[in-house]
Amino acid sequence: MIKFYRNYEPDKLALAEKLIRAFHDFEKRFPAEKDSVELFANLVLTEIGVQCRFCSSHSIVREYGSRLFRCSQCYKKGWIFTGTFFEKMRLAKLWNATIWLFERRVQFNAWQLANLCQVAYSSALVISRKIAKVIHLLQSENAELVPSAVFTTLFCKRSRETPANMHPKFEQIKIDDDFFADQMEVPDEEAIDCDDERKSLLSNLPTAEKQVFTLLSEERIHFDDIANQLLWEGGLVSATLTFLELNNLIVRHPGDYYTKIAEPKKVSRDMAARQKRINDCLNLSIVDQFFEYAISNYHGFSRKYLQFYLAKFKAIFQDGFMAPGKIFRECLRHDSFSYIQMLDYVSPDEVVF
Ligand SMILES: [Zn+2]
To answer: How far is the CA of 56 from the centre of ligand 1 (A)?
Structure first.
């Protein structure tokens, strides 16, 4: 019946079958477009109420599945969704199906949704993003914030934010660079060394090695000059230089010249803390689970919409988060999201997870 799971592996097949079953149930409950319109209309009527804009009467008549109503006082017509989140909704069935699937915590992507609802991929994509944004708004204010850099490896689709001629992950790298540039202005006393290993190595150098290391700089110096300045014989100089070279403290250049390896740049406490948070997050099993979900459903995405993918993940995987009617009620608290608003959206540096 459905062509999209013909080549699926067994684990994906189970997910696809769950999706098809859920959609089948949906179609039984809402077979026609007007059945979905009726659901949305009743929601608007019960949650917000509808008023005649000519005589302010609340008494209206309308037919099943119609977006129009007639005022029973002045007999003028009005649109039931005017001024609500659903004002610009063209395909009520597509909206309703998307919400239905999210509420049942079923995994799906826009391509599958388009196939099931027999609509264009772009329509399915826009609607699922709009609903994901509503789900994102549902997330409580005290939810955990995570640097978006945690997800860099997933950013493999281009967006308007992707720098010209660069890989999509540069959307994130640009943000990291900006953060780094800000941190570079932090005064030194607030900065910390990022290379503890080098530090402890230097403080524990044997006397001879310490002498040679002190003598070297970032400017090239010849082997003979080192031996002459220290009044050492060649064998000792050579052994000492080899030790320093093996420990990555100095570099040997052609012609027997040597330079010191520059001390690594200091990083600010904020920078180090940020890196630590990123590493800690990468060790969380929930982050692993998100990676698995993202790769199996989307094969990666653009950084720009990361926040929406995290919201979808939460709806599907977090117990107790989704409940029937929750998405509808949240929708009614907002004005409709325009296409331009959705296009302008960019996930923040700290995303809700
Ligand atoms: Zn009226």
So the answer is: 6
**Helix axes of 306-317 and 92-103: crossing angle, nearest 10 degrees:** 60
How far is ligand 1, taken at its centre, from the CA of residue 55, in Å? 4
Q: What is the DSSP letter of 258?
A: E
Do residues 114 and 121 lie in contact, with contact meaning Cβ atoms separated by under 8 Å? Answer: yes
The structure tokens 């009617």 sit at 325
- The alpha carbon torsion through 47, 48, 51, 57 (nearest 10 deg) reads 60
CA of 95 to the centre of ligand 1 (A): 30
CATH topology for 195-260 is Arc Repressor Mutant, subunit A (1.10.10)
- The pTM of this model reads 0.74
Residue pLDDT, tens place only, 268-294: 777 788 888 999 999 999 999 999 999
Q: Tell me the CA distances in angstroms from 289 to 18, 50, 245, 286, 311, one per residue in order.
A: 19, 44, 43, 5, 14
Domain map of the chain by residue range? 3-138, 195-260
pLDDT digits (tens, 9 = 90+) for 315-327: 999 888 898 899 9
CA of 61 to the centre of ligand 1 (A): 11
Check the CA dihedral 252-253-255-259 and report its sign.
negative
Q: How many Å lie between the centroid of ligand 1 and the Cα of residue 73?
A: 5
d(CA 42, ligand 1 centre) in Å: 19
